[in-house]
Amino acid sequence: MLKVVHYINQFFGQIGGEDKADTPPLVKEGPVGPGLALQQALGDQGKVVATIICGDSYFNEHVDEALAEILRMVEQYQPDLFVAGPAFFAGRYGIACATVCKAVQEKFGIPVVTGMYPENPGVDLCKKDVYVIKTGDSAAQMKDAITKMVKLALKMVNKEEIGTPEEEGYIPRGIRKNYFAQERASKRAVDMLVKKLKGEPYSTELPMPEFDRVPPAPAVKDLSKALVALVTSGGIVPKGNPDHIESSSASKFGKYDLEGIVALSSETHQTAHGGYDPVYANENPNRVLPVDVMRELEKEGKIGKLHRYYYATVGNGTPVAKAQQYGQAIAKELKDAGVQAVILTST
After folding, report:
1. How far apart are CA 285 and CA 258, in angstroms?
2. What is the rounded CA–CA span in Å between residue 23 and residue 2?
3. 16-33: b or e for each residue (b if 16 or more CB lie within 10 Å)?
4. Contact in structure between 227 and 304 (CB atoms under 8 Å)
5. pTM of the predicted structure, to 2 decimals
6. Which residues sit opposite 50 in a β-bridge?
7. Where in the chain are all domains bearing CATH 3.40.50.2300?
8. How far apart (Å, rounded) are the C-alpha atoms in residues 277 and 181?
């Protein structure tokens, strides 16, 4: 029976949420959290002998120390297979899974597999070296992700031929392989063209990246008379986060009043963002949302007026499609309010 070691973060390790993200690496015997689904998928072919848990913030802020300790933990179990995640769309978690998988594969020479949403930043860190199963953007797809990860992992362990990304469900690695096609290239190309002209479904043999191009707006002719608004994806919200904007994969944005506020303070505002160290933003929220500077520019006559309301959401792990929806909704409100310029701040 295969010995399997599983890596997960503090949330899936049932230690806690963002308040426990600074947890150093620790190991527990047997499966924990999603490891139970992993064990079920392995059946009698493998056993999850240990689960390594590490806080997302701790790993990303102490990479060398965390990685060294995790590798030491892995070595003591001498596993035949290493599984990380799946991390879905959690950025820091994905980066940790990618880094650990590459290190385990390099040091121990055993099969490793992880799973992530294609837009997770961890994907680009490891997809050329590690198989990354394509997942949805949330843990709602946990069972499906684990099933595909185990199926691919067992193929690797048994040294079976690994199929294409479409066949196995992993994210393309940028590797091309020669093969003999049943039909010549000219016929395949014409067939695709005919299907495209007819509006029928077809798949290209050379998918191209899609880049969203947004034409720039014309310059503001006179800022000294312009109504200027602040919008941020840095998660600056009133104290207590009244709209409960999520620290990752935000499902909403907030609209907040700046009337009578000369500058933000730690007593009145905070960040809801889970993708960066919140200490400095909470200490002085103006570092992310520069209300203080905007008031100075307003007083000096450099801008006409600061718009009464600002808009905020969290960019961490938020799908592009959702971000586009938020942007369109916010832009409509600002346009209706007569806003002529927007300063968009991030992290």
Report:
1. 13
2. 29
3. eebebbebebebbeebbb
4. yes
5. 0.66
6. 5, 29
7. 2-168
8. 52
